[in-house]
């Protein structure tokens, strides 16, 4: 039986393998070139970034041991995130309802909300901001350590300093 058309030169398996190779090449091109994979890295100079970190509901010893000028490291990578440039402390508050159903905001005794600003160097690409080899995004928990404390604040804000 004689083969006709395209199947004279190629077997079905050859065509399937060719389609798979073309699809893989298309996906690789999409990832590396169009979406900014490792071949399309942003090679700009690192920029200065200020992270605003919220440490909610901590006790007085933690607040007292956070000082402006402290060096902050990532707890996961143990690399330097930056230096604390500002610190604000407020009494911790909680929203609750009383016995009559009224919504009340009450202060928690011996608990504080501490907001710190950490200034450091970051690599900024079209997809993320990397500080201390860690991707940082607003709302993310970030394990940090200083010489005296270790805590897990929430990233409350990110400001790029030009």
Tag the structure with descriptive keywords.
17% helix, 162 residues, 2 helices, single chain, elongated, 9-stranded antiparallel β-sheet, alpha+beta
How are helices and strands ordered from N to C? HEHEEEEEEEE
Number of helices: 2
Rg calc: 26 Å
Averaging pLDDT over every residue, what do you get? 87
Strand content bin:
over 45%
* Secondary structure: helix percent: 10-25%
Structural class: alpha+beta
- N-to-C CA distance: 74 Å
* Biggest beta sheet attributes: 9 strands, antiparallel
Bulk shape: elongated
- Tally of extended strands? 9
Q: Report low-confidence residues grouped into runs of 5 or more.
A: none
**Number of individual domains:** 2
Written overview of the protein:
- This protein has 162 residues and is an alpha+beta fold.
- It folds into two domains: 34 residues; 118 residues.
- Helix content is 17%, strand content 45%.
- Strands 1, 2, 3, 4, 5, 6, 7, 8 and 9 form a nine-stranded antiparallel sheet that branches.
- A hairpin with a 5-residue loop joins strand 3 and strand 4.
In short:
By secondary structure, the protein is α+β, with helices and mostly antiparallel strands. 17% of the residues lie in helices and 45% in strands. Strand 7 and strand 8 (150-151) form a beta hairpin.
Write the layout of secondary structure elements.
Blueprint: H1 12-34, E1 47-58, H2 60-64, E2 71-74, E3 80-97, E4 103-124, E5 129-131, E6 134-135, E7 144-145, E8 150-151, E9 154-161
Antiparallel strand pairs: 1-4, 1-9, 2-3, 2-7, 3-4, 4-5, 5-6, 7-8
